[in-house]
Amino acid sequence: MAINSQYTFVLSLIVAGLSFAFALWKIYSTLLRPYRTSLRNLPGPPSPSWLFGNLKEIWNDESSVLHEEWVKQYGPNIIYRGFGNMDTLCTMDTRALNHILTHSNEYQKPEHARGNLARILGKAQIRELTEIFVEKAIQASAAQGVLLCDLSFVQLRDVWRAEIDKQGEPARIEVLSWLGKMTLDVIGLAGFNYTFDALDVTKKPNELTLAFQEIFNSSMEMSFYNILRTFLPILRILPNKRAQRTDDAQRVMRTIGKQLIEEKKAAVMKELAAEKADGVVERKDLQAATCSHC
Question: Which of 94, 98, 194, 272 has its CA 20 to 30 A from that of 256?
């Protein structure tokens, strides 16, 4: 009996010690380490809030406008303050961007940002799918993907021309949202042979398009509680309207995604079963090419 009590006491001490060490590490990595970084030597705008830093300024302004003003004032490499006044690097230096993009394993998004993306898009198994997509699927569909990009650029050009004609010259167009819609169209056609019609202003958005819009719009909502949910995962168990909307949109995406995969698998199996004279099976998109190699 005494041995069991001693064992329980020692085990409790070990658990408490590990928990305390983990808490100290999280406090250091989240709150203290950013204040010891060499980024603090870079110029940047003053922080108007000890809690939100420059975030409210950024979110209340148009996309990238404030960043461009800061770059003009302080140079191509600046820092601004995020939540808790933590330093955030902003660079428009092409050499720095090239280095970062070619060393993506070393320059990853912060842990809380990766967590947000995982909740929005799901934990994609990129490493496991690299061989299928890069070495096989992309080779099979690369030419068509380029063609789809060209066609989408033409459609985007026509949309902007119509907007300019409607506003009259000079016209002001918010291009980032339109580029996002064009990207959605290209991904849908090249990747899944699915038509989003995000650039077609004459059509009502379909269910999957609305789901994507809801997810990314909800992820852009800023409030003190939403930020706390990002840094304190335990708060995510509490009911939240934003989280409910995101869950509903993800449910739509999963349902339609599973349907697309099943339809594509059936189509690929039908093509493989058909004995073509030339022995070539047509692959119309990345998903079809991937399914044929699974």
Answer: 272
Cβ neighbour number for residue 239 with a 10 Å cutoff: 6
Tell me the angle at which helices 207-219 and 175-192 cross, rounded to the nearest 10 degrees: 130
258 near 208, Cβ under 8 Å?
no
Q: What is the rounded CA–CA span in Å between residue 230 and residue 194?
A: 32
Residue 49 confidence (pLDDT) above 80: yes
Angle at the Cα of 121 from the Cα atoms of 116 and 124, rounded to 5 degrees: 105
Q: How far is CA 15 from the centre of its chain?
A: 36
Question: Per-residue b/e over 163-191, b at no fewer than 16 CB within 10 Å?
Answer: eeeeeeeeeeeeeeebeebbebbbbbbbb
Domain parsing of the chain, residue ranges: 35-108, 126-292
- How far apart are the C-alpha atoms of 83 and 67, rounded to whole Å? 17
Distance (Å, whole) CA 39 – CA 89: 7
**88 - beta bridge partners?**
80
Distances (CA, A) of 167 to 62, 108, 154, 173, 176: 19, 41, 20, 9, 18
* pTM across the whole model: 0.57
Higher-pLDDT residue of 289, 214: 214
Instruction: Report the alpha-carbon distance of residue 104 to residue 125 in Å, rounded.
Output: 16
Within the chain, how many helices (H) and strands (E) appear?
A: 12, 2
Give per-residue pLDDT as tens, 84-114. Answer: 777 888 898 999 989 988 887 888 777 767 7
Residue type, 104: S
